[in-house]
Here is the input.
Amino acid sequence: MTLTETVLKLLLAVALGGLIGIERETSQKPAGLRTNILVCVGSAMLMILSDLILQKGGGSQGDLTRMAAAVITGMGFIGAGAIIQARGMIHGLTTASTLWVVAGLGLVVGAGFYLEAVIFTGLVILTLVLFLKLEGRLHRRAAVHFHLRMKDSAETLGSLRKLSIHLGVKIEDFHLRRDKDIAVVSFALTAPEDKEQEFSQSLGEIGDILEIKID
Here is the structure.
């Protein structure tokens, strides 16, 4: 394997890992652009290293498969660290799965299967983008109405907006009424049950929200 081929493989790993990372970044996930690029290019480099060692007579053909297995096993531990359990709810399964898949993508690139790597990347992005919408429709519930009493400040309203964006839920029929230094906010939320629960729990962690009613 020439130096040029090695560089091209690493650049392809950066590009393909970056495409998946951009989707994760726009979805505001903790493992975003840089994380996915590093995982992909790191896996590719390890596969390239195995091939270089083999060419110099320092290993056997079986070392390639053992290196691939070691990378995937190691990513299992990293993925486990991306999963968070809070208040009886599990978060980060998709993030952990994506990191594991991106590690596999790096191995495919490092092994020299370029077309397969491009097709693989397309399928991963298709799954993350399109099937998210399908999943949302399958688990969609009737609108839940929230009624909040909070301190009337731009920061508190901004926190509410950031929370909805972070969880990917849509706030509708928003109404705001001010009473001295208190804001009374009502809105409807249509989201899957797990997102609704996470939204409700996160609202309770915003200190300036004084009262929450849900119907």
